[in-house]
């Protein structure tokens, strides 16, 4: 599969998210619970997400992932319990879209990493994945995931 990588610049984005640690094996259940809890809280607030749900990976240790799971929101909103208010920082980002099963996303990361290095940029160390369609309603081969690396 060939990947179209690009550079984007965007402002800071308010979020509501849950940061946790998990193994990659438990990730689907952890993501489902976190997104459900945050969606329920947004409904209580009478608010809607301002975009696709995301996962921010603060490390790549597959047995002990440090991951932040959440939604962009239209404005700063209060957190509640383990749901924390935060921001995706603004700035420059390397971006690529992967189409296919989540467990086959590795080549998209490789393509974006190479593209960023070829362009002379440096990553911050956090990787974001935005889930652009619903795995409950979409065949695995049609899933779209936007991979985003903030740049220094």
CATH topology: Multidrug-efflux Transporter 1 Regulator Bmrr, Chain A
Report the β-strand fraction as a percent range.
25-35%
> Which series of helices and strands comes N to C?
EEHEEEEHEE
Shape: globular
Helix amount = 10-25%
The assigned CATH architecture is Alpha-Beta Barrel
The number of helical segments is 2
| Largest sheet report | 8 strands, antiparallel
Distance from first to last alpha carbon = 28 Å
Q: What oligomerization state is this entry in? A: single chain
- Biggest sheet: strands side by side, in what order? 1-6-8-7-3-4-2-5
Question: Into how many domains do the coordinates divide?
Answer: 1
Instruction: Estimate the mean pLDDT confidence.
Output: 96
Please tally the β strands and state the result: 8
- SS content category: alpha+beta
Task: Give the name of the CATH superfamily.
Answer: Regulatory factor, effector binding domain
Which residues sit in consecutive blocks of at least 5 with pLDDT less than 50? none
Radius of gyration: 15 Å
Please identify the top-level CATH class: Alpha Beta
Question: Explain this structure to me?
Answer:
This protein has one domain: Regulatory factor, effector binding domain (Multidrug-efflux Transporter 1 Regulator Bmrr, Chain A, Alpha-Beta Barrel), CATH 3.20.80. The two termini are 28 Å apart. It is 21% helix and 35% strand. An eight-stranded antiparallel beta sheet has the order 1-6-8-7-3-4-2-5, covered by helices on one side. It has two helices and eight strands, in the order E-E-H-E-E-E-E-H-E-E. The mean pLDDT is 96. A hairpin with a 7-residue loop joins strand 3 and strand 4. With 152 residues, the chain is of the alpha+beta class. The radius of gyration is 15 Å and the shape is globular.
